[in-house]
Write a structure and sequence with these properties.
heterodimer; A: mainly alpha; 2 strands; 1% strand; globular; B: mainly alpha; MetI-like fold; 10 helices; 0% strand
Chain lengths: 341, 294
Amino acid sequence: MRLSTFILRRTGLIVFSLVGLSILVFVLARVLPGDPARAAAGNNAPQWAVDQLRRQLGLDKPLYTQYFVWLDNVLHGDLGYSLTTKRDITADVIQYLPASLELIVLAAMFQIAGSFILGIIAGRYSYKAPDNLVRVVSYIGISIPAFVLAIILQLVFSWYFKLFPTTGELSAGIAGPPAITGSVTVDSLIAGKFDVLANALWHMVLPALALCMGAMCQDARIIRSGMVENKDKDYISMAKSQGLPDRTVTLKYLLKPSLIPAVTVMGLDIAALMANAFLVEQVFNWPGFANLGLTFMLNKDLNGIVALVLIIGIMYAVANIVVDVIVAYLDPRIRLMERGQ
Amino acid sequence: MQIVERVRIIAKRYDLKRKWFRFSRSPLSLVGLVVIVAAIFLALAAPYITPYPREAGLQTNLQDRFLPPSSKYLFGTDQLGRDVFTRTVFGFQYSLMMAGVVLLLVVPPGIVLGLIAGYYRGSWIDTLVMRISDVFIAVPPLILALSIASVLTPSAFNSMMAVSLMWWPWYTRLTYNAASALRNEYFVQASEVMGENSFRIMFNEILPNCLGSILTKITLDVGWVILLGSALSFVGLGAQPPTPDLGTMVAGGSIFLPGQWWISMFPAVAIIVIILGFNLLGDGIRDIFVEEAR
């Protein structure tokens, strides 16, 4: 199979899943008890006003008509109107998504760097003290829910040692850069205000750590076990007996074959950081997409919930395709299969 | 005949002994086992061993609010003067119940769907089941669970329903992969040739060969389900106060940080301990089956 056909096929399947997902959430939101028109009009509104609003919102039409109207709007970039924020959800998403994305990018950097460092140390010194330490730490790291870690980090490093700010995006008294993209870090880079950038990054360290810790530990374990598995293989003994330096053996011959499973899991873990953001942004009062999503959820804002599931579904799908392409690039066996050899 | 029977029993006993030996070689697995047995014991005995069992529910004790940990209140008291130790021990009940109910609801249908799809591999049943399961794993589990829980009315029961609704595809896929690989083995073909009933082949021939990996996944999943459940409660979409749910307690107590840290930190540590225990136990059980497969 050629790479382009492969990507096309995957994209087709993913579009299918996304349509299914939107139907699922849409139907759930409409079928379950509760009258969205009544919720929109308020408890004290007279019945005729509720009926009028129902007609206005198209809620009197059959479910499948409602769905196709919604789908048509979404394809035109209109995610509907939020009854919680009292404006178009598309505008909300544009305002809040960048703040989440910058946090996720930093968390992904921590995750990749941390998992490689921990994994390589543990793999190189397997069954010795450093390995045992990494294994115990990573067990604990996997077992801590993101919100628990967020609170612990906040308690220890912000409240107790006062090394990092407790909440928010910027310190009080620091003016934000002119909003262009909506992400404080990117905007301050564009404006050339490096003090603002530093301040923003300083605020992002703890939330990013809380976001990525579980994934980082899991990936470190996968890298380690891949390296340990290959350690007894003949090609490693061969490389060692030829007198190759330890660094080359570890990084080039041991690490490389361990990369394929690690990259697969790592990519999905990065995509899943958005989910953890729902638990971390709240603790650090981060003005991001996940915080907005939680507001939608707690207010039963159906348009908002459907929109947010769809957007996260798209992000997840894109990440999936990217992972597949990277793995195909890393694994020569897959590449050779493409050429039909 | 009788001798054959007895040999079989002895062989089975020997097999169990060997499994236990493999499991007990790793100290971490043993730690996990001890933690889980202790947690289950605490959860079952909670009404009898906790000092103030009535404070797990609605009873408050306002003159003793915000007391730090002491010999009278081991983990301190919360904003309503309730003993945090008592409520944490009761919290184990909810965590374990969450895991138990979800897995009980999810594993059987997940396995059956996976078996059917795997056995009729390539047919329309396969396509239908697997494409539907794709829909449920198109977003991270937490997001879908949160969304489903939010359109339902938040409660402990509904959060279990929400998690169950999105968890079955993982078992379907696991069983599907195993079943579709076994489908062309000789022993399956032999049963087919002998005219065996399709359902009998699925459940008597194929299923027993998938049980090892399913069992491993179940033990590893318990920790994840508890984590997901506590996350749902933490954001307010799961069990509601005054339910002594660990996630709810962490959320409720986090308002009083950093001053009254004990209100949220002890339940938080309890969550870590119980999830860690199940992860260690699950890895121990996986090691048994992985080595057997070699």
